[in-house]
Design goal:
This protein has about 70 residues and is mostly helical. The chain has one domain: Arc Repressor Mutant, subunit A (Orthogonal Bundle), CATH 1.10.10. Helices cover about 65% and strands about 0% of the residues. It has 4 helices and no strands. The longest helix is centred in the middle third of the chain and has 14 residues. The radius of gyration is 14 Å and the shape is elongated. The termini are far apart.
């Protein structure tokens, strides 16, 4: 059963969302795991990004960042 609309996200759910994104999980599977709609997950991603809790990097940018860290 999905969480009813407007139910606040817990810190644990937000952490799970961020970890799942870091593991390249798709939004639909994240939504299924969290029992949220894909739209709710998408909105939470935007909210976390706006709060500065989430950084979005392209694959090439991420690889360049990793390379700089390893030097």
């Amino acid at each position: 059963m999905l969480n009813p609309m407007g139910v606040p996200w817990t810190v644990k759910e937000e952490e799970h969302l961020i970890e799942s994104l870091e593991l390249n999980c798709d939004i639909v599977s994240i939504a299924d795991t969290l029992q949220r709609t894909p739209s709710a997950v998408g909105l939470k991603i935007i909210h976390l990004y706006q709060k500065g809790c989430l950084v979005v990097m392209s694959e090439l940018t991420y690889e360049a960042w990793q390379h700089r860290r390893s030097q």
